[in-house]
Hints:
Layout lengths: L2 E3 L5 H40 L1 H4 L7 H21 L4 E5 L3 H12 L4 E5 L10 H4 L9 E4 L8 E4 L1 H12 L7 H31 L5 H21 L12 H10 L13 H11 L2 H7 L14 H8 L6
Helix pairs in contact: 4-6, 4-9, 4-11, 7-8, 7-9, 8-10
Amino acid sequence: MPVEFTGEGSMSMARRSRKTSTQKSRVSAAKGRQVRQKAKRTAGRAAKARTPAKASAKPKASAKPKASAKSKASAKPKSASRRSAKPIDLYYWPTPNGWKVSIMLEECRLPYRMIPVNISTGEQFKPEFLAISPNNRMPAIVDPDGPGGKPISVFESGAILQYLGRKTGKFYPRDERRRVEVEQWLFWQMGGLGPMAGQTHHFRHYAPEQIPYAIERYTNECNRLYGVMNKRLADREFLAGDYSIADMACVGWAKNWERQGQDIAQFPHMKRWLEAIMARPAASRGLKLRVEEASQVDMRDPAVQAVLFKQKARP
């Protein structure tokens, strides 16, 4: 079942607080106007008794509050339009690739609707999902407010991160030199850390038989990649200097270092980087985005493994 997120976090509470404060101010102002108007009417009656001709010019003062009320009413549609932004549909399952996009949506405070894609039962092969993601892989998104105000679908986690970075102007620099720095490390993850860590997970935890060569091969390659990342982070806070989509792409894999047979203490700069990202509230929310059915999947179930690991080309 789809789950919708506002992308506003604690901001909504602040808005409610401001709204309550504004309402109280309006009530107080209204009471003040009533007292002043009553005093004016009393003074007017007294003046009329003394000089009737002059009193007839006074009533026009009551037109001012009406104009004020009108201008207040005209301000309401703006806040309504901000709230009416359509959410992005996120097709998702809680994996390192899925977390990349949930983190980015949270960091950008974009409203989104999470639509679970149960990859253990084959929902990724349904025609309606393949129309969005022809590689039958999640994550994928549909943005109803795409270029030119028209809907657009995007698949592949790296492409989604770049699209959202361009859309929002966040975590993906416009300056070409800084953008190249981000892209290098984004694609380093896409072509290196992700696939190698994924194979490490597979042969260490999911393969029906233990193959020592495969386990050693991918565990060692993961170790090498951790060393590359650790060296990179020795003289900078994040992979491209500033926090970016490159860091979001890597953190979901890096946080599973134990499952990859690694000792994070051997990589102190990477450890510091990992702790810094995990402490970010938006990143934490993105990593904790749950799908209840996922916790009930038995990855050693032959039926599940057939869906995940034994697929061939389909007509």
